[in-house]
Specification:
about 0% strand, about 130 residues, elongated
Length: about 130
């Protein structure tokens, strides 16, 4: 009888420790996943900042700036959306010009700088621009 009680106590302890270990492992896994997601978010943000900074600097070097930094980035994204939706390059230039107040030459410059950075899939549409 003592052996049976000892065996039951032992098995109960093993199950308890196993349950604790499983929870600890799950907590560690959750923490590791959270840390990894944060690292990916930070890397993505840093890459986005580098891209945005390069874009803004290129616009500045070509005297094609207007409005705020956010406005300039939004204009490139608008150009990407227009080209992705099948709008012709010339119509996209006109739209960007109207939205930004830039002349068509500066709007073309903005598009030529922004499209390869923000929507590389549309870069071929810039041929001969």
């Amino acid at each position: 009888m003592k052996k049976l009680v000892a065996l039951i106590a032992f098995l109960g302890t093993v199950l308890f420790v196993g349950a604790c270990s499983s929870e600890d492992v799950q907590n560690a896994t959750d923490q590791a996943r959270s840390s990894a997601e944060q690292l990916v978010d930070n890397a993505s943000t840093a890459a986005g900042d580098v891209k945005d900074n390069g874009y803004i600097q290129a616009l500045e070097s070509q005297n094609a700036t207007f409005g705020s930094r956010e406005d300039q980035i939004a204009a490139a994204q608008t150009a990407c959306d227009e080209l992705s939706n099948g709008t012709s390059l010339n119509d996209t230039v006109t739209k960007i010009s109207e939205e930004t107040g830039l002349d068509e030459s500066k709007s073309r410059t903005l598009i030529n700088i922004g499209v390869p950075l923000y929507c590389t899939s549309n870069s071929a549409k810039l041929a001969g621009n």
